[in-house]
């Protein structure tokens, strides 16, 4: 009896130590990943930037899904989170050109052993349908809901974003018979 009690206490302690849990109570965990459902419509790049830099809980990626079970899980919660039976949402799968391999936002390439595409793969950016958990492609400038994901034991770290605006410095020198004047225009 005492030995059984010790085993029970040890099991509870081990379970408590190994239970990861998400950083936010609203995030959903499956297969060691936490998923944040963002009820806001953005372009692919803006959604990815939001996950990387603006997620108030932790830096994250656009959603990574390694099997059909996870895709179904995320689609089920997305239906409720986005309040729609026919919504689509960005996941972290894209390619730079239509002949290049599909790559997840976290850097993993889409393997040959599993794919979840329907027959529409003409564009380079992927959304998932809440109605059937299938993927389809859409233009990057369309605006959609999105889902971020992170590993609660090892959340990503990103370098600060760089400005896409370029700065040009022009130097003009004017020579006169008197003192020389140099002006710097920015």
TrEMBL record:
Residue ranges with Low complexity bias: 160-186
Keyword Signal in annotation: yes
GO terms, biological process: innate immune response
Signal sequence residues: 1-19
Domain annotation C-type lectin: ranges: 30-149
Region entry Disordered, spans: 157-186
Pfam families linked: Lectin_C
Residues passing through the membrane, by range: none
Record-given protein name: C-type lectin domain-containing protein
Organism: Caenorhabditis nigoni
């Amino acid at each position: 009896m005492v030995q059984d009690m010790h085993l029970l206490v040890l099991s509870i302690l081990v379970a408590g130590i190994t239970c990861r849990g998400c950083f936010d109570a609203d995030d959903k965990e499956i297969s060691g990943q936490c998923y944040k459902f963002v009820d806001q419509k953005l372009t692919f790049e803006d959604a990815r930037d939001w996950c990387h830099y603006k997620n108030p809980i932790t830096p994250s990626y656009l959603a990574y899904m390694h099997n059909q079970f996870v895709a179904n899980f995320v689609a089920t919660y997305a239906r409720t989170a986005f309040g729609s039976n026919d919504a689509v949402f960005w996941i972290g799968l894209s390619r730079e050109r239509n002949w290049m391999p599909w790559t997840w936002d976290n850097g993993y390439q889409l393997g040959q052993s599993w794919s979840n595409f329907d027959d529409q793969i003409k564009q380079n950016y992927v959304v998932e349908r809440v109605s059937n958990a299938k993927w389809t492609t859409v233009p990057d400038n369309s605006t959609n809901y999105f889902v971020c994901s992170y590993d609660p034991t090892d959340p990503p770290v990103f370098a600060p974003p760089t400005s896409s605006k370029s700065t040009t410095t022009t130097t003009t020198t004017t020579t006169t018979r008197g003192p020389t004047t140099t002006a710097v225009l920015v």
